[in-house]
Amino acid sequence: EDGSAAWLRYAPVATAQYRAVPTRIVPSSDAPMERAAAEELQRGLNSMLGAHTEIAAQSASARGAAVRLVLTPGTSPEALDSYTIDTSASGIRIAANTPQAELYGVFHLLELIGAEQPLPKHEQQTAAAGIRWTDEWDNMNGTIERGYAGPSIFFENGHVRQDLARAGQYARLLASIGINGCNVNNVNADLDLLTPAHIREFARLAEVFRPWGVRLAMSIDLTSPQTVGGMSTFDPLDPAVAAWWKDKVDEIYRAIPDFGGFTVKADSEGRKGPSQYGRSPADAANVLARALAPHHGVVLYRGFVYNNHLDWNDHKADRARAGVDNFARYDGTFEDNVIIQIKEGPIDFQAREPVSPLFAALRRTNVAIELQTAQEYTGQQRHMVWLPSMWHWVLDTDLHADDRSTPVEQIVTGHSFPLANGKPRRGGFVSVTNVGMEANWLHHPMAMANLYGFGKLAWNPDQPLAQIIDRWTRLTWGNRPEVVKLITTLQLESWQVYEGYTGPNGIGTLTNILGYHFGPGIESAERNGWGQWFRGEKDGIGMDRTANGTGYIQQYPSQLAAKYESLATCPEDLLLFFHHVPYDYKLRNGKTLVQSIYDTHYSAAAQAGSYVTRWQQLHGVVDDERYEQVLRLFRFQAGHAIVWSDAINNWFQRISQIPDAQGRVGHEAGRVEAEAIIGSGYEPVDVTPWETASGGKAVV
Ligand code: BDP
After folding, report:
1. Average per-residue pLDDT for the chain
2. Structural domain of residue 697, as residue ranges?
3. Is 120 found in the same domain as 158?
4. Active site residue 673
5. Centroid of ligand 1 to alpha carbon of 369 (angstroms)
6. CA–CA separation, 212 and 171 (whole Å)
7. Which residues, in sequence order, are bridge partners of residue 219?
8. Complex ipTM, two decimals?
9. Distance CA 554, CA 320 (A)
């Protein structure tokens, strides 16, 4: 059990309730996707039920009991993927409106069996939105930006890999959770990506995705007309530039007829963009959109545009404002195949942020939500953090646009504001995933529950979290009740535990901001030019984003703005995101802010520590290989949670000058400091920043 099968292990199940499942499969046709669906069904049934299932010729469809796959295509190319499953005396019928939905129906049936659930008499499922993509931040040299599980499965040495077996396996995993697009390269795109030679290589990748209904997409750099085309400009309003993009896109579609589209990061973190020519994001997005439209391709233009040279001394400067400031005024001017891809929060994937107000500001423009399965700021797959808990909270957040109910999930699925540029709205969900060559894809055996959960929420954002994690656990670890109970309990508590020992009360992830984003680095998160600040000062802490401060809160629709603006109604888990308050500010639980910070860190670190002993109950119950891997990671997390909570509590005690009421800070029980050990050849040294080592010292 090396984890490579993820949730598609197809382990044997108790067969009693599946006796009536026929052993004959009648495919809908011999086309590649339909063939893949029939073969997947055969593989799953044989493996889980110990059956000898055969795939019949299509013409055999009329006679005898069978699992029948039926394709009834609709007329609109924009129709959402949909399938039904019916069981009756003559067998099981899976009917779908697209070949990929047929695959989804097959995977759903197999999932029910794998999780030992009863089969439905009749079930109908339709995707919540058309865009259900992953973004992979892979570079063509084989490295992955913010990838934590080995090198790229797509590229090496500047080329698409020769052996794409793993890319094909990944596409199958994506299809099994309803994902229909995969952008394979870094949003910080290689500048020579679009050369003819590379496009031919990308076509090979698209080929291994195709049987799984996963459309290949690419991130592109807007300077490509210069860097690849040799032109003197990349001004999106220059007709020659528009012509270049049109030719380039036509060339791509000749090689990849089902190409999904482009993702664009521009005018952000050093990437060039339309601002260089005084042009807008709409100008840039639309020139690409017009080239892609005849082929039904889309542009996912990222809303992650901000000035990364903000001045710390300017108390009005606020990176959180950038989304609305840069995009709201262009609402309604984007082509209808442009989708603005908005990170879930206004900063950058912190352990908790409020929802981006840009979702409510774009009323006549397509939008998709960008979530991050790669745990960049949430423990980098060395800590267990089940992010669907956070995502569900985000998707459920009601922005109250126009004083009516407009939860994020209704916005990104096109229900709250039904039109974009006069056409039915398109939108959806994107996950930055960054799988790698390590056998189990994401390093931590628990981390694939995040990708699984993403797929499930993208298909149906209303699916209960408890059901999602229950299914994942059964498929990944087996159906034994004690296994299911323990793993689901741990996963469901993990986000709040992580938040508790890293950054509660909306302070954000107090991590090393300038480098690798892992472990505490509190001072480095201030005065750094990147605007990711929490303004810890002598008098108090937190970013003042009220009307007196940066004014960010006013970017929300009025009801929500009023709630955040007032200390009396601001949710305390976002308090320091919105307000600058004194350290002895009284929280609703009666504790002072600083005491609550101390207590939360110690108790969350202790809870993370408890994962180890709780996990040990499964020794000999789950397979040894994954048991040991998880045990090792839980031990690491337990230790690192202590490092985190010590660092933050020491820092708070020093800056606030208010001691912990229980006297723990700086006197943590059971601690032996490395510098207190007398050893030859070692010397204590001061550590910078001091808070990242207990007592500010390490030994070398
Ligand atoms: C930040 C990452 C950086 C990405 C950027 C982005 O640290 O590596 O390039 O987001 O999303 O979180 O563009």
Report:
1. 95
2. 670-700
3. no
4. no
5. 15
6. 6
7. 263
8. 0.98
9. 12
